[in-house]
Amino acid sequence: MTAGKPVIERPHVAALAQAAATSGYAPSVSNTQPWRWRVLPDRLDLLADRRRQLGVTDPQARLLTLSCGAALHHARTGLAAAGWTTETHRLPDPADPDLLASLVVTGRREVDAATMRLVQAIRVRHTDRRPVSDEPLPLQSLAQIEAAVRGLARLQTLTGDQVLRLASIAGHAAEVQADDPNIRTEMEYWTTRASPADVGLPPEVIPAEPPQTTVPGRAFAGPGTLPVGPGHDRAAVYAVLHGDEDEPGDWLCAGEALSAAWLTATDLGVSMVPLSGVIEVDSTREALRQMLAGLGRPYLALRLGLADPEHAGPPHTPRMPAEQLIDTSQVRGVEES
Questions:
Q1: Residue 301 above 70 pLDDT?
Q2: Exposure string (b/e) for 265-277, b if CB count within 10 Å is 16 or more?
Q3: Share of the chain above pLDDT 90, in %
Q4: Percentage of the chain surpassing pLDDT 70?
Q5: How far apart are CA 288 and CA 2, in angstroms?
Q6: CA–CA separation, 176 vs 190, rounded Å?
Q7: Structural domains of the chain in order of their starting residue, each with its CATH number
Q8: Predicted confidence (pLDDT) per residue in 151-209, tens digit
Q9: β-pairing, 35-40 with 326-327?
Q10: Dihedral angle at the C-alpha atoms of 27, 28, 31, 37, nearest 10 degrees?
Q11: What pLDDT score does 230 carry?
Q12: Residue 294, C-beta contacts closer than 8 angstroms, at least 6 positions apart
């Protein structure tokens, strides 16, 4: 063997496909799962699937891209837990806007306990829209969640006055969307069994009545079947995920940050709920930006707290079969090393 660049061990194709399958558990707006993966000998290509874009609610594909970013981080975490190091190339081809990222394998790594806890959290993570308990969120847990997003985005915890302002902004966003028949129709499709069986939000994860929360959540097309209980989220912490710019690459990083924060929160026993309604309406997104007072562009509002131990968590949302999301046609017959 000649001297020069070291030979990078080629990952097993099965490891790449498994990482792509792991990403299928990522959170996405209305559980649309708007991504596809292409498996190549040394990398995974992440592509947007515009067929599952919320064309009315999310015309710029802001939340679609953010959702794909969460899937990207899930896949990277899966590869790290399998002992692979990676490089992430975001928006690598200007001529192909659907190619959001390439996750390139660069070598081997030791698997640490922290990575294993994160990959285990992938299967446990879920969204619980009911009020959290009255037990305050430990400051150390909040600090760990804030640290998890660094390098991808920033997480700004809101003060009491800012939470009240967020509540007003979220309420106005809900009113705007409720008055739009096209948004109502689109929401109804993704929250009833009229949508494909493996996507969308089933009634079991939608509260049967509006929860008693300081900041209102999304106004769904109709009530679900999830019992709410008598609590109020007085101990909840509200925060805004934000960054400096507001372009597709920033939305992708914001999705990666959301995944990193949510998996860390899950590992710590912290409930996290994204509040995307304030981002979906142009005027309320701008109001949220102004509330940040020059700190940056908002990508998502979040509610954090400790789940009420008196109530079992809601079921997990359905997931599309991996074979419908992962293209392995270019590695069939490739000898694994």
A1: yes
A2: bbbbebbbbbbbb
A3: 83
A4: 94
A5: 58
A6: 19
A7: 13-124+321-327 (3.40.109.10), 139-305 (3.40.109.10)
A8: 999 999 999 999 999 999 999 999 999 999 999 999 999 987 656 789 999 999 999 99
A9: parallel
A10: -90
A11: 79
A12: none
pLDDT value at 11 more than 70 = no
Structure tokens, 183: 């948004």
| CA distance between the termini of the chain | 18
Closest to 155 (Cα-Cα) out of 11, 260, 50, 73: 260
30/185 Cα distance (integer angstroms): 14
Asked if the model's pLDDT at residue 1 lies above 50, the reply is: no
Classify residue 109 by its DSSP letter. -
- Residue 109 burial (10 A CB sphere; 0-12, 13-18, 19+): middle
Q: How far apart are CA 52 and CA 31, in angstroms?
A: 10
Among the listed residues 82, 2, 75, 6, the one whose alpha carbon sits nearest the alpha carbon of residue 43? 75
| pLDDT tens per residue, range 96-149 | 999 999 999 999 999 999 999 999 999 999 999 999 999 999 999 999 999 999
Q: Which residue has the tokens 């947007």?
A: 48
The tokens describing 178, both together, are 């409720």
User: What residue type is assigned to position 292 of the chain?
Assistant: L
Q: Which long-range contacts (CB under 8 A, 24 or more apart) does 160-166 make?
A: 162/238, 162/291, 163/214, 163/215, 163/238, 164/214, 165/291, 166/215, 166/238, 166/240, 166/278, 166/288, 166/291, 166/301
Outline where 110-235 has alpha helix (H). Answer: 113-124, 139-148, 160-178, 181-190
pLDDT score of 195: 63
Q: In degrees to the nearest 10, what's the CA dihedral of 131, 133, 134, 140? A: -110
> Which amino acid is it at 224?
G
Return the exposure string of 179-192: e unless at least 16 CB atoms fall within 10 Å of the residue's CB, then b.
eeeebbebbeebbb
11/127: higher pLDDT? 127
Q: Is the pLDDT of residue 308 over 70?
A: yes
Question: CA 14, 254, 245, 34: dihedral to nearest 10 degrees?
Answer: 60
Q: In the sheet where 99-108 sits, what is the strand order?
A: 84-90, 99-108, 43-48, 35-40, 326-327
**């496909």: which residue's tokens?**
17
Please state the φ and ψ torsions of residue 308, each to the nearest 5 degrees: -70, 120
Q: Which amino acid is at 12?
A: H
